[in-house]
Amino acid sequence: MVYSFKGYTPVIHQSSFIHPLAAVTGNVIIGRNCYIGPGAAIRGDWGQIILEDGVNVQENCTIHMFPGKSITLKESAHIGHGAIIHGANIGVNVLVGMNTVIMDDANIGDESIVGAMAFIKAETIIPKRSLVVGNPAKVVKEVSDEMIAWKTKGTQLYQQLPADCHESLKEVEPLREVPQNMKMQEDVYKTLRDFMKK
């Protein structure tokens, strides 16, 4: 669901995938290989929202701002299920955890990881490579090379997902019983704890 608003029409690169149950409105620019999940709302009615290449905005996220503001989610930003970004800028290769809220004029430094359910107050500046948790959120340590490698691998799955959706996602009638030959999906990504064990 892509809507123009007051003469502003979203610009979306053809390689990106916007789920039919997502809503993209107004002054929004979406780069290459971005994934926007069902239930996500990216609302550029009062200001501009830029998603650089490889960004994913997962299910039930909201991206919005106060009037006259413009925000950028930089390359490979990874916005977890249910997160709210309201007038904040997100750095390169940042992970925003599920159900996190990031408020106006906050800036999240490149390669930071924000834990699930964190609350980042307005105008907070998070330095690069910070691990941020809590409500109110606090920097608890620096992100290690291993942690950012794990994050980057997870984001790469989402950067492949738009092509997979363009190729294979289709509306169907459900099956009424489980097929006998049904296969499980591949185990291609580990939790951080399992990733660190290898």
From TrEMBL:
Keyword Chloroplast in the entry? The reply is no
A Pfam family annotated for this chain is Hexapep
> Any idea what this protein is called?
Transferase hexapeptide repeat family protein
- Species assigned in the record: Lacinutrix iliipiscaria
Record bears the keyword Transferase:
yes
User: So which domain of life are we looking at?
Assistant: Bacteria
Keywords tagged on the record: Transferase
InterPro entries reported for this sequence: Hexapep, Transf_Hexapept/Carb_Anhydrase, Trimer_LpxA-like_sf
Q: Name one GO molecular function term.
A: transferase activity
